[in-house]
Amino acid sequence: MDQEKILFMILDKLGNIEREQHEIKNDIRDINKELVTVKEDIKDINKKLVTVKEDIKDINKELLTVKKDIKEMKSVQNTIQEFVLSTDKAIEVYEQDHAFIEKLKRVICEESHEDDYKA
Predict the structure, then answer these.
(1) Considering the chain, what percentage of its residues have pLDDT values greater than 90?
(2) Rounded to an integer, what distance in angstroms lies between the CA atom of residue 17 and that of residue 23?
(3) pTM to 2 decimals?
(4) Longest Cα separation, the chain
(5) What CA–CA distance (Å, rounded) separates 79 from 87?
(6) pLDDT digits (tens, 9 = 90+) for 38-77
(7) How far apart are CA 43 and CA 35, in angstroms?
(8) Can you tell me the distance from the alpha carbon of 89 to that of 99, in angstroms, rounded to the nearest whole number?
(9) Cα angle: 37, vertex 38, 39; to 5 degrees
(10) Which of 10, 19, 47, 94 has its CA 20 to 30 Å from the CA of residue 112?
(11) How far is CA 47 from the centre of its chain?
(12) CA separation for the pair 72, 66 (Å, rounded)
């Protein structure tokens, strides 16, 4: 009987080992399925990363264009500012010339009236 019990216990242990091995195989199969899913996710992420890198390159190009446009606008603004200053100076000179001409006209008119009185 003892041998039968020992044999039964051995068979029981072997049965437990078999079940555990079967469970381990199922676990490995599940892990492999998850691994395939993870690999697919990584591929998708890498594709998206490439797209993001391309988008960043495009944004950098646009930013450079904007910076160039701003520089050009500043240059135009400086040109306009210089023009306005030149115009202000020209108007000031014009006003001075106009005042001089008006004084000259008065002097000429006065001299012409004096010549009329002398004659």
Answers:
(1) 83
(2) 10
(3) 0.52
(4) 171
(5) 12
(6) 999 999 999 999 999 999 999 999 999 999 999 999 999 9
(7) 12
(8) 15
(9) 90
(10) 94
(11) 21
(12) 10
Distance (Å) of CA 65 to CA 52, 57, 71, 86: 20, 12, 10, 31
Q: Write the single-letter amino acid at 97.
A: D
Tokens encoding 93 = 């000179």
Q: Which residue has the tokens 């160039």?
A: 68
List the structure tokens of 83.
Answer: 């023009």
Token pair 């495009």 is found at 58
Rounded Cα distance, 109 and 111, in Å: 5
Q: What residue has token string 């391309």? A: 54
Q: List b or e across 56-87, with b for residues whose CB sees 16 or more CB atoms inside 10 angstroms.
A: eeeeeeeeeeeeeeeeeeeeeeeeeeeeeeee
Amino acid at 12: D
The residue to which tokens 């892990």 are assigned: 31
Q: Which two tokens stand for residue 90?
A: 């020209």
